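Exercise 3.2. Students should predict the tertiary structure of the chain below and write it as structure tokens, then compare their answer with the key that follows.

Predict this chain's 3D structure.
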Amino acid sequence: MPNVTIDTTSPEETMALAEKVGARLRPGDVIAYFGDLGVGKTTFTRGLAKGMGLPDVISSPTFAIVQEYHGEGLSLYHFDMYRVDGALDLESTGFYDYPLDEGIFAIEWSEHILEALPKNAISITLERLSDTARKITIEGDERFVDLGHGYFRDGCGDCTV
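Answer key:
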């Protein structure tokens, strides 16, 4: 499975990386986020939306379970599965009623619904290195591998492929 790991040193760098990812997304893509509370999943989604040409007024869907963002192109459906416990709970959220083939799903706390994720989901794992630095690993699609070859920053910082 193709993957790339990139270290960012600030929320702005995290958003810039996410913007590059968002510009490459296509209808039906599922972004499955993994990472601890407060590690930057919503920050990453803000950059993702910007890269998709959507407004960057992204907020955490914690209490709503899903936030929808529509633009002239693709729509973004931002889910929070923190309070969902498996596929049976997922059914009651209305998750399956959203038009995946017409938009992008960005799913926080994906580990709670692993069995419901499509096989071709793009996994993005965010790990805290310091208060502002993050290690970000993108797995599952070759579209993003070159982000680790100087595409994101000169010299790529501390990225690996």
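Discussion points: The beta strands are 3-8, 30-34, 66-69, 75-80, 103-108, 122-128, 134-139. Residues 141 and 159 are 17 Å apart (CA to CA).
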